[in-house]
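## retry 2 of 3
previous attempt timed out at serialization; input unchanged, resubmitting
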Amino acid sequence: MLSGMVQAIEAGEIPAKSPLQGRLRAALIKKMAWLQQPVAMRSPDSKLNPATIQLVWAAIIVGDAESLDLSLDIFLTELSEQDGAAMERQLILADCRDKLLALAPDRASRAALETLSRKIDNSG
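## retry succeeded, writing output
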């Protein structure tokens, strides 16, 4: 669902915000529905269960603070379900940002992603 975003970033492009916003919203809805299923019934299919880190990345790129908060909440929920570990929100966000920046193939792409990341910091 958000794999096109990852491919664009790896190619040195910043995905267009408007279409990405729509895909992000759809992915969040799917992820929330997936979380409401009993653990034993959850499908590993990425069409039904979008990667949570990609939700965080998309929220950063589109500059949507509410979606970022929801994505981080989902991340925390999944971590607590997996091993009962509690992790700080800011540590998760920092790790997600580092991994997003690592996708960028060059300095210019990385700088553009860093700018988007700072914008969401200032909007939240």
